[in-house]
Design brief:
Helix content is 40%, strand content 18%. It contains 16 helices and 16 strands. The strands form five sheets. Strands 8, 9, 10, 12 and 14 form a five-stranded antiparallel beta sheet that branches. The termini are far apart.
Length: 491
């Protein structure tokens, strides 16, 4: 029999072990519903500027990646854009290479190589990609630099956001966002320039004659850059990026990560520069919180390894500056390994430990696949042929009782020079070509040619017989392809 237990008259008298941390405000008289917020609003992060070794390397990668991204579409090769993925013509130009959709296997190999390289670098040195070369990190650095130039340093930006609305505040905010939008649109324009010749795209843009798809992708990519780097920033790394979630599967205690030397730093506390930390029973951490202020994701590295850490090393740079000022040794926050920190290894010992079985397996597989892909690409024949039977005439009798089959050859010239190809056929006694055996194909063109193949009467039994077409270039660089086909002899 169910028992109805009356509710307590005073809900605020909860037991000490209750999960309720704070009590909701009392409901108004006659109102039985109380609204409790389960989510905290995002606290905006104002990263402090920092200089140092890792900061310099981060800006070096920013410059390198952006010079490649923005400059590559403007390079010319053989009187055309050096790198162009022409989706409309289904041709992909990468300097001297001309690839077709049939070469998709090379893209697969490149993606496999990239994934394995990511696994290898993560196993050795943590999230180097995230901290130095990830587009989210790179563009956030650029947008933060623009913000700093317009609004000032960290303290100035915080004061500006808290200040009342004024002409000066609106002007700075307007200028910052205008620069962000211009940079984002230039990024979107460059991105589309990899798929539409960028000089042609520039002329269309100036003339206001962009097509709908070009306009859409410039605006879409520009909006994504503006939103991710200008507003979302660390939220992309913390909540959207899957890499942060599965990185723990690639980490171990010998992975080089940004670490805080807890044994040396604790207990932390403020003190004068001349004070002896041992006399005060304090560690070397002066609890200045600068490591938190410079962190682009807003974490406290002193709490240990956290998935939000992107391994940028900003906290190590600023901590070294503080240690120099107070006269303590550098390295309170540094790149190290968990085993190295626990056992007091030197940097040389930790580097030698990097050559462990996991790393060697990743390296061996990566090297083997890389060699295989690039060897295949180097030995690739820039000629592709498809043989298709003419369905309108499977087999027929012609002059002098000879038996004729008609085939259609799709010849793809994957070079940027006009090629002449000689066609021959073999596989049956007396087999010959009854049509022109030389065909000319323009650069990067796909040309279809009807080919009539004949054999003498009684040269083969009725049925299907295998024959081989050989297509051979006649220029200085000889390329040859063999394709099998079936020759039908009627009963």
């Amino acid at each position: 029999m169910p028992v109805n237990t009356p509710a307590p008259e005073n809900p605020s008298k909860a037991s000490p072990g209750s999960a309720r941390a704070t009590e909701p405000p009392a409901a108004p008289p006659g109102d039985d519903e109380v609204l409790i917020s389960l989510y905290a609003s995002r606290q905006k992060i104002y990263p402090r500027s920092v200089s140092g070794l890792f900061s310099q390397w981060r800006w070096i990668t920013v410059w390198i990646t952006q010079l490649v991204f923005y400059g590559l579409p403007w390079l010319e090769w053989n009187a055309r854009q050096a790198v162009l993925f022409d989706l409309e013509a289904r041709r992909f130009y990468i300097f001297g290479l001309v690839l077709y959709p049939q070469d998709f296997i090379y893209l697969t190999g490149l993606l496999v190589i990239s994934a394995l390289a990511l696994f290898l670098f993560t196993a050795v040195a943590g999230r180097l990609w995230c901290g130095y070369a990830c587009p989210q990190t790179v563009y956030t650095e650029i947008f933060l630099w623009i913000e700093k130039q317009v609004e000032g340093d960290r303290a100035a930006r915080m004061r500006l956001d808290k200040a009342a609305l004024s002409t000066g505040k609106v002007g700075k905010k307007w200028l910052k966002h205008a620069l962000w939008v211009l940079f984002a649109l230039w990024t979107g324009f460059t991105f589309v320039g990899y798929f539409t010749p960028i000089r042609e795209l520039g002329a269309l843009t100036l003339a206001g004659a962009l097509g709908p798809w070009q306009t859409f992708w410039i605006l879409f990519y520009g909006f994504a850059t503006y939103g991710n780097a200008g507003f979302m920033r660390e939220q992309v790394c913390k909540y959207m990026c899957p890499y942060a979630r599965f990185q723990s599967a690639m980490f171990d205690r010998d992975t080089m990560i940004v670490t805080y030397d807890e044994e040396r730093g604790e207990p932390r506390g403020a003190r004068s520069k001349k004070a002896d930390p041992a006399a005060l029973n304090l560690g070397h951490c002066i609890d200045c919180t600068l490591c938190v202020q410079v962190c682009p994701t807003g974490i406290d590295i002193r709490k240990g390894l956290q998935y939000e850490c992107i391994g940028c090393g900003a906290c190590a740079d600023v901590c070294d500056e503080v240690m120099d000022k107070v006269g303590y040794p550098r390295g309170l926050v540094k790149y190290s390994t968990q085993n190295g920190m626990k056992q007091g290894w030197s940097r040389a010992q930790m580097i030698r430990r990097a050559l462990r079985p996991r790393v060697l397996v990743y390296s061996g597989i990566l090297l083997a696949i890389t060699i295989a892909v690039f060897t295949s690409l180097f030995l690739r024949v820039p000629l592709k042929v498809d043989v298709i039977r003419d369905r309108g005439a499977l087999a027929r009798m012609v002059d002098q009782g000879r038996i004729e089959n008609v085939f259609r050859l799709q010849i793809m010239n994957a070079t940027e020079e006009t090629q002449r190809y000689a066609i021959s056929v073999s596989g049956l006694p007396g087999i010959t070509l009854a049509s022109d055996n030389v065909i000319e194909v323009l650069p990067t063109e796909v040309r279809a040619a009807a080919v009539r193949v004949q054999i003498p009467p009684d040269a083969a039994q009725p049925g299907s017989h295998s024959i081989v077409f050989e297509i051979r270039s006649t220029g200085e660089r000889v390329h040859q392809v063999s394709e099998k086909a079936a020759f039908l002899v009627p009963r």
